[in-house]
Structure formats: structure tokens, C-alpha cells
Amino acid sequence: MSTPDPAKGQAFHHGDLRRALIEATTDLIERDGPAAVSLREAARIAGVSHNAPYRHFPTRDALLAAVAAHGFDELKAAFDVPAVAAVDDRLLALGEAYLHFAQTKPGLFKLMFGSGLDRKGHPDLDRAAQAAYAVLLNASGPQGQASREGALGAWALVHGLAHLIVDDQLAPDLREDARKAVLLEKISKAYGHLRG
Amino acid sequence: MSTPDPAKGQAFHHGDLRRALIEATTDLIERDGPAAVSLREAARIAGVSHNAPYRHFPTRDALLAAVAAHGFDELKAAFDVPAVAAVDDRLLALGEAYLHFAQTKPGLFKLMFGSGLDRKGHPDLDRAAQAAYAVLLNASGPQGQASREGALGAWALVHGLAHLIVDDQLAPDLREDARKAVLLEKISKAYGHLRG
DNA sequence: GCGTCGATGTTGACGGTGACAACATAAGCG
DNA sequence: CGCTTATGTTGTCACCGTCAACATCGACGC
Hints:
By secondary structure, chain A is mostly helical. The first copy, chain A, folds into 2 domains: 12-58, Arc Repressor Mutant, subunit A (Orthogonal Bundle), CATH 1.10.10; 61-191, Tetracycline Repressor, domain 2 (Orthogonal Bundle), CATH 1.10.357. In chain A, 64% of the residues lie in helices and 0% in strands. In chain A, helix 1 crosses helix 3 (60-78), helix 3 packs across helix 5 (106-114) and helix 7 packs antiparallel against helix 8. The radius of gyration of chain A is 19 Å and the shape is elongated. The interface between A and B is large, with 39 and 40 residues.
């Protein structure tokens, strides 16, 4: 029973503890939120002793960082929307993908953004995040100062909306999906004006 | 030696432990971030035993909620900008106050938004937050569906920008204050277009 | 004045957690 | 076969949030 993917997986005693821990932690995060995650509970779920995780992650934060890095990979994958001609439509599609990600996996979203996890201390996390961001910041067509600022503005807007939704800080009458979609469309048009 | 402010302060053994704990916690949050705050450390700083806080806060989260509520009071106070005629200028001033708050007290900002602290479990926090939000949502002049959506959009944008800054997720060349101000001005104009 | 009572603070304990150290085991390799 | 090294386990420590039992001090009625 060799591991089907021997890419970098070291299958020793357990099989692939590293992956198992990341999966267990991901589930825990989505169930109870990032703050409630404990190294020992993840180990319990993976069926190993309370100290086994330290063979794969030097610290609790390193485990969380690995999970967050996977989250950024997922986010970047979600940005792989069908190509469209108009820049505005592309921004809109990316914004919807962003919001959909935040609403589908709020715990992961909070981990990736909300919690502290200093990026400079976890280079893999930093790389994954930068890669996802790059898609966003390049979405407003070729370079140029104005378009860069426009993309940043659109990003900030969608990011803020995602946070407000995930943190449940929106009055009920402002939270409906339909209205949100309308808002997003308007956003896109507004940034069209900005860049024009 | 009567307490100068007997408003609701119960000055018993310690003097005003409740206030002292809130202040100690606020300092701790700004120093090490919300996650690193411990009830016992706050008690230590206040010079009382590790269990004294439980006479004033039923739980650790309740203490954090009280600190966060104070934060929202501060934020609302910061929204008390000089009255101006143009709605756009008012939105701009509020946005700048928002960003200034986030940059001046990033730990508090993270506590108020980032961390879990379910609002429904802490009514005082909920009230304080709603009061601050009300200022924002009413900033775009009289009522009306369109203006409400415009205010929400502006709020989301500034909120997102604040989060990106506080979480240190902006490339250095996008973070400078000057450029941010320019951005804010454009935001305001864009939402002027939206509402027009 | 004095005694009771409730609010406040203290001491001690329990289970859970992250982290460290020492030890055990098994895979791979000579 | 025996060494080395990666992996996992057991044991331990300090710290944390929380509960329970006890101590103390101010207020208020008699």
C-alpha cells in the first residue's frame, strides 16, 4: 500500500500525518473557529499522541499557517474564472468568487485574514498569499498606476464586504444575496468610472 | 477620599477593579494582540489575585467584550467630525477617521472586528457597535434605498482597507499614507457617481 | 454601637493546553 | 547485521480559564 502520491509525502509510521493533521485542523477550524483549534485535539483526531504533531510543525502557529496557506491556494484556484473580454466583468467575477469563498468557508477565511499569524514568520504562507493576491491586482488589465489603484480599491471593497458578512456585522436587510449581487455590479461600474 | 466619579463605579476594596482590568486588558491587547490576552495577566497588572476578575466579568470573553465595547464608543466619538455641507466630504472625513482609528489602535481594531466575540452573547457590545455603525450608515444624507447602499459600499471599502492595513497585507508601495488619501478621495467621488 | 449581610477579593484545586526532554521504534542503507 | 535518522510516545512543566470554599470589608438595620 504505497502512497498514491509520493510527491513529497513521507509515509512513515502513520502514513501521512502531516496531511492528516492539516485536514483535521481544517475541519476543526470550520467547526469551532480558528481560536478553538488545539494541537492536541488535531492529534487526537488523527489518532496519534499529543506530541506527534511536533515532528511536522514546530509550533501551533506553524500548523495554522500551513492550513491558511492551503486556503490561499484554494482561493487562487477559485479565481480561475472563465476568461471574459471586459475588465469590469472580470472584476465582478473575481469579486463574486471572493465572496463565495468567504461565505462557503468562513472559518478558513477568518484564519487566513482575521487571526494574527505573522506572515514573515511563515514564508510558505506568505508565498501562497502573494500568489493569490497577484491574480487580483493584475485583474484590471495591463499595468499602470491608475488601474493598480482601481484594482486595490475593488479588492478592498470586496474584502471589507466579506469581512462584514463573515463577522455577521451586517443588518439583516443588507445581507441578502440578491442585494449583494446588485451591489457588486454597481461596484464594478463605479470602478469602471474611476479608471475612465 | 470619595471617588471623584461615583457615576456607577463601585469603589470597594480595590478602588475600581472593573476599570483597572479594562485598562490593563486594553494595554495588553495593544502590546501583544487580542489572542495573547490572559485574564490572569490582567489581574496581575491590576495587582489583584488571579480570580478577582470573576467578580466583575463572568468570563474571559466578557472582559474582552467590555474592552471592545469601549472601542466602539471611541470609534463613535472619532466619527464626530466637523459638520460639512457636501455629503461626499462627510463620507471622506468619516473614512479617514476610520482608517486613522485602525492604524492608531490596531490591536483594539482587531479585537472589535477580527476575533470571534459573538455579539448576541454580549448585549452591551452589540449596542455600542450598532451605535457606531449608525453614524456611518446615516452619513449619506437622508434615507433612501440607493443612498443606503452607497453608504454600505463606502463602509465596506474603508473597512476592507483598514483590515488590509492592520493585517499588514498590502505591498509596501500600496501602503503609503499619501496614496491612501488619494484613494479615499477617489472613493468618495466614485460613490458620488453611484448615488447620482 | 453592633451584628448581620452582601459585595468583593483570596486561596486552592481541576482539567486542558503548548512546549520541552527523554525514550522507543522502524525504515533505509552500508 | 548494525548504524543512522525520521517518526511517534511518554512524561513533565508552566500557564490558562474556571469552579468552589473561604476571608474580609462596607453598609445598613436594630
